[in-house]
Write a structure and sequence with these properties.
By secondary structure, the chain is an alpha+beta fold. The protein has one domain: Roll (Pnp Oxidase, Chain A). It has 4 helices and 10 strands. The strands form 2 sheets. Strands 2-1-5-6-9-10 form a 6-stranded antiparallel sheet. The mean pLDDT is about 90.
Length: about 170
């Protein structure tokens, strides 16, 4: 029997669909670093998450993650503000490569759809999220904690692990 899943199928589907991604960490003096992701991916079981950052815009954040600052990542639906926060103490980093390109393109298309619902055109979204592949870093982690961060009375509530799977 495998351990209980931290994320339920609805959470996994939301992350997999491609919604707004913000990644944060902190340095040894607890100074925060934060950056918008330019892509994300999740495995079908929700145990491995990859977020993509532009190296040129995320130097401090990447340094803080590498130095053991941990990370917190929020995934948010722009039209509804439904928000999921995942946390992990460690993550690995690697340069993005050609195999990541379809994921990044799919993410961009999804975000163009998401933001069109709140009035932003595809050119705006492309300007915000497009990145040369050689400037993109993949940050992979296993979520250790998850929280409902949707604005309202449940914001900050820890998610309870799902039922164990056989």
């Amino acid at each position: 029997m495998s351990p209980p899943a931290l994320l339920n199928p609805q959470h996994i589907a939301m992350v997999d669909r491609g919604v707004s991604v913000i990644v944060a960490s902190r340095d040894a003096a607890l100074r925060p670093s934060i950056m918008r992701g330019v892509g994300s991916a999740i495995d079908p079981g929700g145990t491995q998450v990859t977020v993509y950052l532009r190296r040129s815009q995320s130097r401090q954040l990447l340094q803080d993650i590498a130095a053991g600052g941990g990370l917190a990542v929020v995934f948010s639906e722009p039209p509804t503000h439904r928000t999921l926060q995942l946390k992990a103490r460690t993550a690995t980093q690697r340069p993005a490569g050609p195999a990541d390109l379809p994921l990044l393109q799919r993410y961009l298309a999804s975000m163009q759809h998401e933001l069109a619902q709140v009035g932003y055109g595809p050119a705006f979204v492309a300007a915000m999220l497009s990145a040369p592949l050689e400037d993109v870093v993949a940050v992979q982690f296993s979520p250790e904690a998850a929280f409902d961060q949707t604005p309202g009375p449940r914001a900050g509530t820890p998610l309870q692990p799902s039922t164990p799977t056989p």
